[in-house]
Amino acid sequence: MYSRLILTVALGLxxxxxxxxxxxxxxxxxxxxxxxxxxxxxxxxxxxxxxLARLEKAVEENARDANAWNYMGYSFRxxxxxxxxxxxxxxxxxxxxxxxxxxxxLGELYLQTGQLEKAxxxxxxxxxxxxxxxxxxxxxxxxxxxxxxxNK
Length: 152
Fold this sequence. Notes:
single chain; about 150 residues; mainly alpha
């Protein structure tokens, strides 16, 4: 009996969604990739200079995009432009203080610049943000351990 009720409700929801779109309509064409998507693609390809060009345009289009600021910080860090990386990560975290990527990468920046205690602060933030654990926490924790092992 319950399975029939669930099936009836599910089919009703599907039908309602189809009617809301109108007869013969479709979701529409997919939006072409923008500056953010091209920037992320360049980051993944290791072309950090090209990534920065696209990501800077992306934050001009949407200054509240924490993900774009995070990837800008990452790109600056990979280019060893640590001051600019710090600014970008701080902007990402001003928008979203629990941004996992920005907290992890900022922690890694702190390790690269010899600021262990600040890296540990980022790990604490990730510990709170990742209630059931997350990759960002695990990666930063390992990076801190490696840093401590080589800098005794």
